[in-house]
Amino acid sequence: MSSLERRCRRLLRAYPAWYRRGRGEEMLDTLLEASPPGRRWPSFRDTRALMIGGLRVRGWTWLLSMLWVAAGAVITGYIFYNTTKPWEPDLGIPGWSTDPLAVQIAVVLALAALVALPVPALIAGFIRLRGWRRGNWLRAAAWASAWIAGVALYALAIAWGEYPLHSCPNMPQTTVPPQCPYGSPAVVSWGELAIYPAWLVLGAVMTWILARPARRWYVPDLTSRASQDASRWPPGAGDLQA
Amino acid sequence: MREPTYFVLASLLDGPLHGYAIIQRTAQLSGGRVRLATGTLYTALDRLTAEGHVELVREEIVNGRARRSYGLTPPGAGALRAEASRMAEAARLVTDHGRGLKEVRGARKASPA
């Protein structure tokens, strides 16, 4: 396998697996044939077109779901980051105001995306799936169950993160009732940290559920049709006449 | 109909072609103006196949890989013809008014700079 072929194969991973199964080898053949001899890398034009084509095939559902998963990843990272910080009693919102502005903006955007994206993702999924057939209801139920399970896990994580009365480590108990402040290492338990990756896995499952092939004809598995249709060529003479 | 789509359909007028041949023929027909990238071509073929304008007519294995040839369907030929007629109509709006164009040129020359 040449280096060009290996790179083209890697590039084709922009398309989902179900699409590559039907089209991958054919597209690779065209890519290699269209490349001048001696070339080792696919051209910029081909790379850009394949990335855009892959996104088109994957659809809005995949994009929205991946944004949702990415938002979860940002928040997970932020929580890990918070566990490494000492509590700072002089700030109004401990753990927030000492962060760089870019971090604060990223976390706020990620939180907004995490809350807001599931509904448009579900709507995009149903637009993609073209209707309310039985199979789609099952997918929607599975997706909604995954989302509810994720929220439940998050609630459980918060419960695990709450420390017993007067037991917050390294801080005075001045509030009534005594609470560990947000951003304090005391609030983030290892249980919560374990929950977040689980949530991201759920996000990946949700993406998989709704980003399946939208329409059967999209998959160019037309081998059996080819021989039947060959007799229909050329098109009727009337179609080409003035 | 967008220009690349028009030329992809036009490239199939003489018979079925496979992916790379469509790219070559499209560039040739458009005088090098439309140079399709592979991803763009297959996006167009997916759409045209779904719309019934293009169909798979032959599949063979070359160098261990699938090579598929696509042909124009009767609805595809009809759509291509309709688009060609529309463009010819639009072109006639200008070409049939040669006298008007001459008057515009004459008026420009006569007008002060």
Give the SSE layout:
The complex is a heterodimer of chains A (242) and B (113).
Chain A: H1 3-11, H2 17-34, H3 44-83, H4 101-116, H5 118-129, H6 134-161, H7 190-210, H8 223-230, H9 237-240
Helix pairs in contact in A: 1-2, 3-4, 3-5, 3-7, 5-6, 6-7
Chain B: H1 3-11, E1 17-18, H2 19-29, H3 38-51, E2 54-62, E3 65-72, H4 74-95, H5 98-110
Antiparallel strand pairs in B: 1-3, 2-3
Helix pairs in contact in B: 1-2
Instruction: Determine the structural class of chain A based on helices, strands and strand pairing.
Output: mainly alpha
* Order of helix and strand elements from N to C terminus of chain A: HHHHHHHHH
- State the low-pLDDT regions of chain B, or none: none
Beta content of chain A: under 5%
Mean pLDDT of chain A: 68
Main sheet characteristics of chain B: 3 strands, antiparallel
Helix content of chain A: 55-70%
The low-pLDDT segments of chain A are 182-187, 216-242
- Mean of pLDDT of chain B: 86
Relative strand content of chain B: 15-25%
Oligomeric state: heterodimer
Largest β sheet strand count, sense and barrel closure of chain A: none
Helical stretch tally of chain B: 5
What's the order of the H and E elements of chain B?
A: HEHHEEHH
Descriptive overview:
The complex is a heterodimer of chains A (242) and B (113). In chain A, 64% of the residues lie in helices and 0% in strands. Chain A has nine helices and no strands. Chain A has helices at 3-11, 17-34, 44-83, 101-116, 118-129, 134-161, 190-210, 223-230, 237-240. The longest helix of chain A has 40 residues, at 44-83. Chain B contains five helices and three strands, in the order H-E-H-H-E-E-H-H. Chain B has helices spanning 3-11, 19-29, 38-51, 74-95, 98-110; strands at 17-18, 54-62, 65-72. A three-stranded antiparallel β-sheet of chain B has the order 1-3-2. The longest helix of chain B is centred in the last third of the chain and has 22 residues, at 74-95. Chain B starts with a helix and ends with a helix. The mean pLDDT of chain B is 86. The interface between A and B is large, with 40 and 37 residues.
